[in-house]
């Protein structure tokens, strides 16, 4: 059974994926965060990635995480250079909300031979950025515009196109540190009109926002910035 099947299809839904940015998490916080996540029933696994990976040794970082947990570790790469064979799988992303060919196909072509060489399991993922009213890192890095948060039908059309093109995961993203999360009507609309697992991230910095995303239709939520600030935040989600 593939990791995709085990985690996203057959595993429990309404679970959290913890996003680890190697450039932002020091050793002490990493230890606490992984320890708390290991003890949490709501954490399904870890994503590792960064908009711009500058100073960290990705191989060493992922190896350390793997040594500390039995939960799956999946790469969430910002580019083809952010790969390591020590992870369990990689989100093979295409930024469908944008029109920059570099993030629609160019990075994927560069990445594909590396994924094969490293024997990483690719999980074809439609990455759809939703406007959060403030500019986010991913907008600057990818030179793309997010989809308007008040255009639900437009977002649903992108998600449907993703499913019809064969993507196996849909990821609605408000952006790292977003002031506003993905609107509930968009989450609900995408969930009602597609049949692949739905991941939602960005701006989910309170238990209430996370539960609201779940009740709106998210199968998985992603938490990153809040845990960088407070590694103990995850403990309150099991209560």
What does this structure look like?
This protein has 239 residues and is α/β, with parallel strands linked by helices. It has one domain (13-238): TIM Barrel (Alpha-Beta Barrel), CATH 3.20.20.390. The chain is built from nine helices and eight strands. It has helices spanning 3-9, 27-39, 58-68, 101-118, 137-142, 152-164, 184-193, 207-216, 225-229, and strands at 15-20, 43-48, 73-75, 89-95, 121-129, 169-173, 198-201, 220-223. The protein has an eight-stranded parallel beta barrel, surrounded by seven helices. Strand 1, helix 2 and strand 2 (43-48) form a beta-alpha-beta unit. Helix 6 runs parallel beside helix 7 (184-193). The longest helix has 18 residues, at 101-118. The chain is globular and about 45 Å long. The mean pLDDT is 96.
Features:
239 residues; alpha/beta; TIM Barrel; 9 helices; 8 strands
Per-chain topology:
Layout: H1 3-9, E1 15-20, H2 27-39, E2 43-48, H3 58-68, E3 73-75, E4 89-95, H4 101-118, E5 121-129, H5 137-142, H6 152-164, E6 169-173, H7 184-193, E7 198-201, H8 207-216, E8 220-223, H9 225-229
Parallel strand pairs: 1-2, 1-8, 2-3, 3-4, 4-5, 5-6, 6-7, 7-8
Helix pairs in contact: 6-7
